[in-house]
Amino acid sequence: MPTEVTAPGALLLCRAGPHSVAPAAHLLREPMLLARAGDEWSVLVPEGTPWQHGEEPVDRVLTGWATALAVGAPWPVLALWWDADRAGCLLATGFRRPVAYVWLAPGTAAGEDEAMRTFAARLGLDPVLDMQALERLTRPDAEADARSRLLGLLAVLARAGLSLPPGLTPGEPADRLSAAVRGRPDVRQIAWRGWRETVRAELDAVEGTPLGHWLPRTGSPRARALASAQVAAGLPLTAWALRRRSPGWLVAGALLLAHGALGLVYDAGRGRARSTAQG
């Protein structure tokens, strides 16, 4: 039986633990709740609803957030969103072009089949069983609506280890989603703490990981090139977002600039420290 969706809502699924996701989430400068969603998954529940107070619809806001989170991160980000007319998902992975799929309220698919194959490949899903389940979500089904399509997608991801906390169900309004997890003992409050504290937390989180040898903080030529590329990509994206008054893409551009600039500054600081030590 189709369930009517009356208010927009959204979730951000990250294929990483909360400890890895938290530093990047702080850089979004948006109030969110962060909870574990399986052994290798986390979920971010937005507490703010900028799509209800501006010109940007929920899907565009979530596109910007997911893209910003995935920039410079070694894990993918899957955004789920819905409103009264549509529901959809978007997968962001690093600098790759985000891939999205949309269903109209009655469950009618409005995307390209190739998107589901890209989802399966980038998320490391089973190329046979999981791919068959994803393809069913693109076919006509008189009993399905947009909400049930998202539930079907979550069922596929459950086989990949995703386990959402109770109450986080597609179709629910944003305030009900945040209320469902706010009282959990393992939930982290994501709030803007200023650039200095946020960057320090991010550097501490990354330095101790196996990825530290190539991320922009490490001072390697590859890291310097990546940091420079982030700055080069962030400048025009930020300017475009300002002209379009697009808060979602503005966050993505600002985060690119921040990652790149901090990488270059950190690299310079490490260089001075090495010179002092050698002298």
Would you kindly provide a written description of the structure presented here, covering whatever features stand out?
The protein has 9 helices and 7 strands, in the order E-H-E-E-H-E-E-E-H-H-H-H-E-H-H-H. It is α+β, with helices and mostly antiparallel strands. It folds into 2 domains: 9-188, no CATH class; 194-278. Strands 6-5-4-1-3-2-7 form a 7-stranded antiparallel β-sheet, sandwiched between helices. A hairpin with a 3-residue loop joins strand 4 (77-82) and strand 5 (86-92).
Question: Could you list some keywords that capture this structure?
Answer:
279 residues; alpha+beta; 2 domains; seven-stranded antiparallel β-sheet; 9 helices; globular
Which structural class do you get from the secondary structure elements?
alpha+beta
Instruction: Write out the strand line-up for the largest beta sheet, numbering strands in chain order.
Output: 6-5-4-1-3-2-7
User: Fraction of residues in helices?
Assistant: 40-55%
Mean model confidence by pLDDT: 81
Termini distance? 74 Å
Tally of individual domains: 2
Q: Name the shape in a single word.
A: globular
Strand content: 5-15%
